[in-house]
Amino acid sequence: MSPCIRRHSRRDLGMVLITSLLLLLVVTLLALAMFRGAGLENRIAGNVLDKQRALQAATSTDVYAEQWLVNNVSAATQVSCTATTFSGATAPPICTNTLASATGETALNVPWSIGGYSYNPTTTLTGATTLFPVATSDLPANYYGSPTFYIAYLGYDATYNYLDAKDYQIDAWSYGGSNSTVAVVESIYQIRPIAAGGGGP
Questions:
Q1: pTM, 2 dp
Q2: Number of folded domains in the chain?
Q3: Is 166 within a domain?
């Protein structure tokens, strides 16, 4: 019995080359898609981190404004705020007009045309001079602008009118690492007098 010898034609060899090139192309496209997906995930993670930084800064500013209000409400004077009220202000003013009535826009339109009180305390915890380092370069480590807040007196609260309760609206906002990342926090804060014990028999 003679062995069977199969001879390949040039056409068969050409098909193997074309098939190999197609497989190589598919593998290359899959590898490129994988690397592109990894880069996209990194950008998404960076955007989420920047958004959280802006939100934390705005929340911290809102909490500071609430605590400042508690400690200074009796001594602070109320004014009808304009854009010049905040230029060079050494202490936060309590505005008799809300942010919406003063600007004709909502608190979400940042930066506010009327401005606000800039909150950026100094700290030695990170070795920086300010808690929110502001710069338009080296953005991952810095904030695009200082956090800002606006305190507005809303009047007596009808629910607790007999207790002389007063309501205040606090709007705070902060940038993240760029001017396209911003967070706005708004709270209604109520201050009520409490009775101090007078002693007695």
A1: 0.73
A2: 1
A3: yes
